[in-house]
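We close this part of the discussion by returning to an individual protein. The amino acid sequence and the C-alpha coordinates for this protein are reproduced below:
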Amino acid sequence: MKGNSADNIIFEVVSDGNVEQCRDLCNELMAFQKAQATIAPEIFDGMKFETRLLSTFINSPVNQLIVAKEGDTPIAYIFSTIENVADGDKSAIPEWAPVKEGEKALGFYPPWDNFPTKVGCLNHLYIRDGYRGCGLGRKLLEQAMAWLTSFVDVNLTFVYISNGNHAALDFYLKHGFTFSHDVFGGFIQAAYKIRVATLRETKKCFTK
Protein backbone atom coordinates (compact mmCIF):
# COMPACT_ATOMS: atom_id res chain seq x y z
CA MET A 1 0.00 0.00 0.00
CA LYS A 2 1.15 3.50 -0.70
CA GLY A 3 0.58 4.45 2.94
CA ASN A 4 0.52 2.48 6.16
CA SER A 5 -3.15 3.01 7.03
CA ALA A 6 -6.57 2.92 5.44
CA ASP A 7 -7.30 6.54 6.29
CA ASN A 8 -7.06 7.67 2.66
CA ILE A 9 -9.39 4.93 1.42
CA ILE A 10 -13.04 5.65 0.70
CA PHE A 11 -15.83 3.08 0.99
CA GLU A 12 -18.79 3.07 -1.37
CA VAL A 13 -21.96 1.02 -1.13
CA VAL A 14 -22.93 0.19 -4.71
CA SER A 15 -26.46 1.46 -5.27
CA ASP A 16 -26.50 1.81 -9.05
CA GLY A 17 -25.80 -1.81 -9.96
CA ASN A 18 -22.25 -1.05 -11.14
CA VAL A 19 -20.74 -4.39 -10.25
CA GLU A 20 -18.53 -4.22 -13.35
CA GLN A 21 -16.02 -2.09 -11.44
CA CYS A 22 -15.10 -5.20 -9.43
CA ARG A 23 -14.37 -7.39 -12.46
CA ASP A 24 -10.59 -7.29 -12.10
CA LEU A 25 -10.72 -7.70 -8.32
CA CYS A 26 -13.00 -10.72 -8.58
CA ASN A 27 -10.78 -12.39 -11.18
CA GLU A 28 -7.76 -11.70 -8.97
CA LEU A 29 -9.59 -13.37 -6.08
CA MET A 30 -10.29 -16.49 -8.15
CA ALA A 31 -6.62 -16.68 -9.20
CA PHE A 32 -5.52 -16.19 -5.60
CA GLN A 33 -7.82 -18.98 -4.40
CA LYS A 34 -6.47 -21.33 -7.05
CA ALA A 35 -2.89 -20.56 -6.03
CA GLN A 36 -3.70 -21.30 -2.38
CA ALA A 37 -5.76 -24.44 -2.99
CA THR A 38 -4.45 -27.89 -2.17
CA ILE A 39 -7.69 -29.68 -3.13
CA ALA A 40 -8.82 -29.61 -6.78
CA PRO A 41 -7.29 -26.23 -7.72
CA GLU A 42 -8.31 -26.82 -11.34
CA ILE A 43 -11.94 -26.15 -10.42
CA PHE A 44 -11.09 -22.47 -10.07
CA ASP A 45 -10.35 -22.35 -13.82
CA GLY A 46 -14.10 -22.15 -14.38
CA MET A 47 -14.64 -19.49 -11.75
CA LYS A 48 -14.46 -15.88 -12.86
CA PHE A 49 -16.30 -12.59 -12.59
CA GLU A 50 -19.19 -13.66 -14.84
CA THR A 51 -19.82 -16.97 -13.06
CA ARG A 52 -19.21 -15.80 -9.51
CA LEU A 53 -19.77 -12.16 -8.54
CA LEU A 54 -21.92 -11.03 -11.47
CA SER A 55 -24.09 -14.14 -11.47
CA THR A 56 -24.71 -14.00 -7.71
CA PHE A 57 -25.35 -10.26 -7.81
CA ILE A 58 -28.02 -10.74 -10.47
CA ASN A 59 -29.66 -13.79 -8.89
CA SER A 60 -29.67 -12.63 -5.25
CA PRO A 61 -32.41 -10.01 -4.86
CA VAL A 62 -31.19 -8.98 -1.40
CA ASN A 63 -27.52 -8.11 -1.51
CA GLN A 64 -24.92 -5.50 -0.66
CA LEU A 65 -21.66 -4.70 -2.45
CA ILE A 66 -19.15 -2.40 -0.76
CA VAL A 67 -16.14 -1.23 -2.75
CA ALA A 68 -13.02 0.30 -1.20
CA LYS A 69 -11.25 2.79 -3.45
CA GLU A 70 -8.03 4.73 -3.49
CA GLY A 71 -9.03 7.74 -5.54
CA ASP A 72 -11.18 6.32 -8.33
CA THR A 73 -9.48 2.92 -8.32
CA PRO A 74 -11.22 -0.07 -6.67
CA ILE A 75 -8.72 -1.90 -4.47
CA ALA A 76 -10.97 -4.12 -2.33
CA TYR A 77 -14.57 -5.24 -2.00
CA ILE A 78 -16.96 -7.27 0.11
CA PHE A 79 -20.18 -8.81 -1.19
CA SER A 80 -22.96 -10.08 1.07
CA THR A 81 -26.37 -11.65 0.51
CA ILE A 82 -29.44 -12.77 2.37
CA GLU A 83 -30.19 -16.38 1.43
CA ASN A 84 -33.46 -18.30 1.69
CA VAL A 85 -32.62 -21.87 2.66
CA ALA A 86 -34.88 -24.69 1.52
CA ASP A 87 -34.53 -28.21 2.89
CA GLY A 88 -32.93 -29.41 -0.33
CA ASP A 89 -30.32 -26.65 -0.21
CA LYS A 90 -28.74 -27.99 2.97
CA SER A 91 -27.25 -31.10 1.42
CA ALA A 92 -27.14 -30.13 -2.27
CA ILE A 93 -23.88 -30.96 -4.09
CA PRO A 94 -23.31 -28.94 -7.29
CA GLU A 95 -21.88 -30.63 -10.38
CA TRP A 96 -18.56 -28.81 -10.11
CA ALA A 97 -17.87 -29.96 -6.53
CA PRO A 98 -14.98 -32.47 -6.21
CA VAL A 99 -17.17 -35.13 -4.59
CA LYS A 100 -17.13 -38.64 -6.03
CA GLU A 101 -20.34 -40.57 -6.59
CA GLY A 102 -21.34 -42.34 -3.38
CA GLU A 103 -18.96 -40.27 -1.27
CA LYS A 104 -20.48 -38.74 1.84
CA ALA A 105 -19.90 -35.00 2.07
CA LEU A 106 -21.69 -32.07 3.60
CA GLY A 107 -23.02 -29.24 1.47
CA PHE A 108 -22.97 -25.54 2.25
CA TYR A 109 -25.03 -25.88 5.43
CA PRO A 110 -24.48 -28.08 8.50
CA PRO A 111 -27.02 -30.80 9.41
CA TRP A 112 -28.41 -28.94 12.42
CA ASP A 113 -31.95 -29.45 13.64
CA ASN A 114 -34.23 -26.41 13.38
CA PHE A 115 -31.96 -24.76 10.85
CA PRO A 116 -33.30 -21.30 9.94
CA THR A 117 -34.94 -20.69 6.58
CA LYS A 118 -33.05 -17.43 6.12
CA VAL A 119 -29.35 -16.74 6.72
CA GLY A 120 -26.80 -14.09 5.93
CA CYS A 121 -23.87 -14.94 3.73
CA LEU A 122 -20.52 -13.23 3.23
CA ASN A 123 -19.80 -14.27 -0.35
CA HIS A 124 -16.61 -12.41 -1.23
CA LEU A 125 -14.00 -10.41 0.61
CA TYR A 126 -10.91 -9.49 -1.34
CA ILE A 127 -8.14 -6.95 -0.88
CA ARG A 128 -5.63 -6.34 -3.63
CA ASP A 129 -2.03 -7.23 -2.89
CA GLY A 130 -0.21 -4.15 -1.65
CA TYR A 131 -3.20 -2.94 0.37
CA ARG A 132 -3.33 -5.74 2.93
CA GLY A 133 -2.36 -5.45 6.57
CA CYS A 134 -3.73 -1.94 7.14
CA GLY A 135 -7.16 -2.76 8.56
CA LEU A 136 -9.14 -2.74 5.31
CA GLY A 137 -10.48 -6.25 5.86
CA ARG A 138 -11.73 -5.38 9.33
CA LYS A 139 -13.43 -2.21 8.13
CA LEU A 140 -15.13 -3.96 5.24
CA LEU A 141 -16.24 -6.84 7.47
CA GLU A 142 -17.67 -4.47 10.07
CA GLN A 143 -19.71 -2.64 7.46
CA ALA A 144 -21.01 -5.86 5.91
CA MET A 145 -21.95 -7.32 9.29
CA ALA A 146 -23.77 -4.10 10.22
CA TRP A 147 -25.91 -4.56 7.10
CA LEU A 148 -26.49 -8.28 7.66
CA THR A 149 -27.51 -7.81 11.30
CA SER A 150 -29.95 -5.05 10.33
CA PHE A 151 -32.35 -7.80 9.23
CA VAL A 152 -34.33 -8.72 12.33
CA ASP A 153 -35.18 -12.17 10.95
CA VAL A 154 -31.56 -13.08 10.21
CA ASN A 155 -29.73 -14.42 13.25
CA LEU A 156 -27.04 -16.49 11.57
CA THR A 157 -24.33 -15.54 9.05
CA PHE A 158 -22.10 -17.94 7.13
CA VAL A 159 -18.82 -17.39 5.34
CA TYR A 160 -17.10 -19.87 3.04
CA ILE A 161 -13.32 -20.05 2.76
CA SER A 162 -11.59 -21.87 -0.08
CA ASN A 163 -9.23 -24.67 0.89
CA GLY A 164 -5.65 -23.71 1.62
CA ASN A 165 -6.53 -20.12 2.54
CA HIS A 166 -5.57 -20.48 6.19
CA ALA A 167 -5.04 -16.74 6.70
CA ALA A 168 -8.65 -16.02 5.69
CA LEU A 169 -10.02 -18.66 8.05
CA ASP A 170 -7.91 -17.28 10.89
CA PHE A 171 -9.18 -13.77 10.09
CA TYR A 172 -12.81 -14.78 10.46
CA LEU A 173 -12.18 -16.80 13.61
CA LYS A 174 -10.40 -13.78 15.07
CA HIS A 175 -13.49 -11.68 14.35
CA GLY A 176 -15.98 -13.85 16.17
CA PHE A 177 -16.81 -16.59 13.67
CA THR A 178 -16.82 -20.26 14.65
CA PHE A 179 -15.71 -23.11 12.39
CA SER A 180 -18.75 -25.08 11.24
CA HIS A 181 -17.77 -27.87 8.86
CA ASP A 182 -15.89 -28.96 5.76
CA VAL A 183 -17.91 -28.40 2.60
CA PHE A 184 -17.64 -30.85 -0.31
CA GLY A 185 -15.03 -32.94 1.48
CA GLY A 186 -12.85 -29.98 2.44
CA PHE A 187 -12.82 -28.09 -0.84
CA ILE A 188 -14.40 -25.26 1.15
CA GLN A 189 -14.51 -24.56 4.87
CA ALA A 190 -17.58 -23.00 6.44
CA ALA A 191 -17.71 -20.76 9.50
CA TYR A 192 -20.66 -19.04 11.14
CA LYS A 193 -21.51 -16.20 13.47
CA ILE A 194 -24.64 -15.83 15.56
CA ARG A 195 -26.21 -12.45 16.15
CA VAL A 196 -24.94 -11.31 19.57
CA ALA A 197 -28.27 -9.89 20.71
CA THR A 198 -29.95 -13.27 20.24
CA LEU A 199 -27.00 -15.53 21.00
CA ARG A 200 -28.60 -17.39 23.91
CA GLU A 201 -31.96 -17.85 22.19
CA THR A 202 -30.42 -18.87 18.87
CA LYS A 203 -28.12 -21.48 20.40
CA LYS A 204 -31.17 -23.09 22.00
CA CYS A 205 -32.75 -23.49 18.55
CA PHE A 206 -29.80 -25.18 16.85
CA THR A 207 -28.87 -28.75 17.71
CA LYS A 208 -25.68 -30.00 16.15
